[in-house]
Amino acid sequence: MKKEFWFIVGSQDLYGEEVLKTVAKRAQEMATELSKALPYPLIYKVTAMSNSQITDVIKEANYDDSCYGIITWCHTFSPSKMWINGLSGLQKPFCHLATQYNLEIPNEEIDMDFMNLNQAAHGDREHGFIATRMRMPRKVIAGYWKDPEVRKRIAKWMRVCIGVRTSETMRVMRFGDNMREVAVTEGDKVEAQIKFGWQVNTWATGDLVKEMSKVSEAEIDELFAEYKSKYDIATDKIDAIRYQAREEIAMKKMMDRNGCKAFANTFQDLYGMEQLPGLASQHLMAQGYGYGAEGDWKVSAMTAIIKSMGEKENGASAFMEDYTYHLAKGKECSLGAHMLEVCPSIAEGKPRIETHHLGIGMNAKDPARLVFEGKAGKAVVASLIDMGGRMRLIVQDIEAIKPIMEMPNLPVARVMWKAMPNLTTGVECWILAGGAHHTTLSYDVDAEMLSDWARIMDIEFVHIGKDTTVEGLEKELMLNDLLWKLK
Ligand code: MN
Prior knowledge:
Elements: E1 4-10, H1 17-37, E2 42-48, H2 51-63, E3 67-74, H3 84-88, E4 94-98, H4 112-117, H5 120-133, E5 139-142, H6 148-168, E6 171-175, H7 189-196, E7 199-203, H8 205-213, H9 217-230, E8 232-233, H10 238-257, E9 262-264, H11 279-286, E10 290-292, H12 297-308, E11 317-326, E12 333-337, E13 347-355, E14 368-374, E15 377-386, E16 391-401, E17 414-419, H13 423-433, E18 438-442, H14 447-457, E19 460-464, H15 470-486
Parallel strand pairs: 1-2, 1-3, 3-4, 4-5, 6-7, 6-9, 8-13, 9-10, 16-19
Antiparallel strand pairs: 11-12, 11-18, 12-17, 13-14, 15-16, 15-18, 16-17
Helix pairs in contact: 6-12, 6-14, 8-10, 9-10, 10-11, 13-15
The structure holds manganese (II) ion (MN).
Manganese (II) ion is lined by residues 293-294, 321, 338, 438.
């Protein structure tokens, strides 16, 4: 399935044929040039001059699965009552690019003909008004279309739209239910389907065990060879690794058969299994599947969605959990990890396969897992919670660092980071916002992208960044509560 974005240029029929021909020619040139710089092609569709033309192209955009979003721009003036019928039916993400064909005001050349043709400065305002009047969620990007910064922002918005489609088509396979008594991993699955499109359903762990028993030794040989080529084997318990391969193959078959792109399980329900899937879950995440531990289907779906927004639609994003803090003054940082399941897409260097005893759960044998350090760099952690009546996405900016200690006895993958605005204020804000201990950590998306995603999905968004204060955040949360009760 091809993935493209449509460029719809607004105009009207008062300008005469010459002007309109020039607009169409330039629009085509801009779409062609932009496509070379963007991760997905931008297809010039039409210079729209009437209500029916706009309605037609938007209907076509709604029904064409290859169209992931529309980008509009007004080279000339385009009276926006013409846009009402079309925009009121729009079902695809919408970006308004407020740009102009020329970079500079041409001192010598400027005359009334130039003014007639180059009216974006006021054409885009007329266009903006109607979308605001109609309360339309959309992205507005302003700047010169050849500016690399502008192109970067369009590229990021396109990636958000990939995440929107991943969400709309998301199916989550739950092996068993939620970890007993845990609140934040629960949620309204009906609401999630209405808001996000997610189909979240349960399969018995026994069904997985049955599927595992059908996996052949040859299939395991093949996957074992793949593990060997990607990772360092730092254990002599080869059987434990082969058992994880069996688990991975069986889970992948079940998910692919049911069109699932994400899964959740819980250590409390390993009925008939010798090991909690560790390496198996990690290698599935490396292939783009989302994962949530302890039955956490929300973080699982979000991880798959955020991964799909990254490079090659499987970026450096991972299921994560805040584990412990380093509270020493001036050196404050967080240590994130999980019992086993952190995606190796965020690893610095080659992960090692190790086996260790896991006391929690019903593991008869020591589960094999990938052990590594996360890479350094700017990142975010994101948590989706169910507030009862609405979903809230909380995003915090972080700076991942090279771990300041070796932690030679910690038998799991780990990431160390400095949270914004600082560790303790960040913790206070996170707790006040109700953020979960499970998150998706991503080096590929930023708060702006997740805010864009939340706007398209029509859910609440809370950002904790370098300028966030507890006082300001409390006020925002209180106002949000009122606002979302009215919505
Ligand atoms: Mn957990």
